[in-house]
Amino acid sequence: MIRVVIEVWNGATSFSVVAQAKSLREAVNIAAVVYPNAEVRVKFPIDAETFFVKDASARVEIASLERAEGMAA
User: Fold this and answer.
1) Would you list the domain boundaries of the chain?
2) What's residue 12's pLDDT?
3) Cα(24)–Cα(14) distance, rounded to whole angstroms?
4) Residue 5: helix, strand or coil by DSSP?
């Protein structure tokens, strides 16, 4: 299981979420389902210290909203 930050772009607004999944592709797909009208992508560089989830009971999910910020169009 891995944990990555996913950038979500919806028009003039962008924000990041933390996704836990079995792979990078699955993390992006989960974010795309949760935010169907937005562009989603993995934020690089990936934080090596938090990338692998060591909790055996961890589940596939959008774990948290990391930050929200408005952007000019």
Assistant:
1) 2-70
2) 87
3) 20
4) strand
R_g (Cα) of the chain, nearest Å: 12
- Distance (Å, rounded) from C-alpha 42 to C-alpha 37? 17
Angle at alpha carbon of residue 23, lines to 22 and 24, rounded to 5°: 145
Whole-angstrom Cα distance, residue 72 to residue 57?
41
Do residues 20 and 47 lie in contact, with contact meaning Cβ atoms separated by under 8 Å? Answer: no
Amino acid at 5: V
Total-model pTM: 0.77
The pairing of beta strand 39-42 with beta strand 2-10: antiparallel
Q: Which residue has the tokens 């000019």?
A: 72
Predicted confidence at residue 26, as pLDDT, reads 95
For residue 39, what are the CA distances in angstroms to 17, 52, 54? 13, 25, 29
